[in-house]
């Protein structure tokens, strides 16, 4: 049986999972593939730490470039992360005609067009299934299983850290800061969680999904991004009372030649399938013209789920090598249709608003009048009994569908009024259509 040499760049958590998976399931893979993936080299700056797997010391190296250059390495698996040396090594491997498997979402979101072009020019495979959703095969689904569909929309929970924090805030009535600390103590949040809680990790993944769904480049700076740091336990409570649950969503839609890609906390109805996604789990809801609705659900991170997807990609590359069919599945299917990114100011949604208003007669009517002048219709209104100090009370309302720029203009006027205690809290509502 033919051996296919594997070179691994990065021996961290995911790299360890890949090595462990090959050691435990190598025979199974060989039987299924007709060739045996064999680890030839592993590069990492730390070769001393105990990772819980036995590895021949002779295959370990600090020289990542040497892994790519090794003639016995046929497939390069990049698990370093970031957009610096990782990009150089991926480009070097592709230039040398070696297929690449990567889990690097930031690299693909920022430099995907350049990387995919080189892979196409060199007629060599680039696989990146683990870059979005960990153990969820959403990349494979979009590239292959749903290829006959015109994708209409994708709504997704793509960050386990944020979903864990929001779940804790709701279930245990926690403030954001307390829930974040709990996530860090449980190992679900980094010491510096900025990339996750500010929404940027989700934005990287959304850019990749949108590019696959619509066959176009999606620049990161074209994505509207809001994190969860402004979500309060108060709004979690009021949202539930109104029949909603707050989630950090990636919202991707196409219509009238425009594509919108945005990341922000959103209210989803309690009967919405994404409302039931709890803790560190992720889910991706795809709507297509033929499939109608398809849901993929599972762990979005972690050693073994992510390693499972990486090894699935390795298996595909090995099959392509054995059959002599590189680029059998294009990295991105470029479409002839011309599409542009939709300006966030023009998106349509329903909105949740929480005002802090002076407890005086006629104040609510005054604010309703301002909203009406901006063409915003109120669907429901709740005036709470809680006193926020200095005689201000919370007033919560839900609007009918309206345009973002109308909401921004109305709130700019409202928040400048003397009868407002704090800046208005605004969250968009995403409903199953």
- Number of H/I helices: 13
- Share of residues in helices: 25-40%
Say how many strands there are.
18
Radius of gyration: 24 Å
Largest sheet: 12 strands, mixed
The overall average pLDDT, rounded, is 92
What is the distance, rounded to the nearest whole angstrom, between the alpha carbons of the first and last residues? 51 Å
Write down the overall geometry: elongated
Low-confidence stretches: none
Beta content comes to 25-35%
- Main structural class: alpha/beta
Molecular structure report:
With 433 residues, this protein is an alpha/beta fold. The chain is built from 13 helices and 18 strands. The chain has helices at 13-33, 64-69, 85-95, 105-122, 138-145, 160-171, 176-185, 194-197, 200-214, 233-241, 303-323, 363-373, 404-414; strands at 2-9, 35-43, 60-61, 75-78, 100-102, 126-127, 151-157, 224-225, 244-255, 258-269, 281-288, 292-299, 340-341, 348-358, 378-383, 392-399, 402-403, 425-429. Strands 7, 8, 9, 10, 11, 12, 13, 14, 15, 16, 17 and 18 form a twelve-stranded mixed beta sheet that branches. Helix 12 packs antiparallel against helix 13 (404-414). The radius of gyration is 24 Å and the shape is elongated.
